[in-house]
Amino acid sequence: MRPDKPRDPVAGPDAGPESPYPVRLSGPVIKGFGRGSKDLGIPTANIPADDLSEQHPELTSGVYYGVVALDPQSLAQENGAEKSTSATLLPAVLSIGYNPFYKNTVRSVEIHIMPPLTQPSPTAVAQPKFNRLPDFYGTKLNLLILGYIRPEFDYVSLDALIEDIRIDCEVARQSLLRDAYQRYIVDDGKASAQVNEDRKWLVTFDGVSANI
Ligand SMILES: Cc1cc2nc3c(=O)[nH]c(=O)nc-3n(C[C@H](O)[C@H](O)[C@H](O)COP(=O)(O)O)c2cc1C
Ligand SMILES: Nc1ncnc2c1ncn2[C@@H]1O[C@H](COP(=O)(O)OP(=O)(O)O)[C@@H](O)[C@H]1O
Ligand SMILES: [Mg+2]
Hints:
With 212 residues, the chain is an alpha+beta fold. It has a single domain (23-204), classed as Elongation Factor Tu (Ef-tu), domain 3, CATH 2.40.30. The protein contains six helices and eight strands; from the N terminus they run βαβαβαβββαααββ. It has helices at 35-40, 52-55, 72-79, 158-176, 179-182, 193-202, and strands at 23-28, 45-47, 62-70, 90-97, 108-113, 140-150, 204-205, 208-209. The strands form two sheets. It has a six-stranded antiparallel sheet with strand order 1-6-3-4-5-2. It has a two-stranded antiparallel sheet with strand order 7-8. A hairpin with a 2-residue loop joins β7 and β8 (208-209). The radius of gyration is 16 Å and the shape is globular. It starts with 22 loop residues before the first strand and ends with a strand. 32% of the residues are buried. The model has no long low-confidence stretch (mean pLDDT 94).
């Protein structure tokens, strides 16, 4: 059960991601149990978790933050829209694990994509409105995990789970607003070659680089 303690406003060192982060994950957006939107009002894009334990033993079950990009080519096909060559980098908060509140028997990776950091946070208030985009099932997604927030917990109620995820969104946002993290989203001219390479990886799908 969730310990009854106040939460830290940020997670991870101010100086930037510390080993093993950043960690790269990719996959097509698949169907989950359909609870995110329906039960919680918090949509989560699920990607396959089949090879995670072998490929990323460092990713223990828990809540993380990072940056995502959706493949503009497959996004266009999904929405029947005209093909675009530009991808947007967006802040994200995610859960990896068995969702102890729901007692899942398979591990899942579920990503909630937040609004751009330049917009006001819709989850900073007591009656939050979680970010909702048009559905993008089947779209290829790249995710760069930049830090760990907390372990997964069971909760006394659905409302308690939702309130903790609301705080996760705020922790992720405040963590990503720091210069050493924000430069994974926007080039501030001070990024290292490695950070620039990671940003480039985020928008590369099937060997083709999209514009940012
Ligand atoms: C940031 C974040 C934190 C979460 N933390 C927990 C948690 O501590 N315990 C838990 O049981 N589920 C947690 N969840 C998972 C939700 O229960 C899950 O998103 C929901 O079951 C939707 O699942 P679905 O995609 O299969 O519909 C978290 C989800 C997110 C996005
Ligand atoms: N902000 C968002 N973050 C993640 N997915 C979103 C968002 N807005 C809309 N979606 C869509 O909602 C779907 C997830 O909803 P959810 O209720 O969790 O269903 P599922 O159980 O199938 O994962 C995603 O696959 C995506 O198509
Ligand atoms: Mg989901």
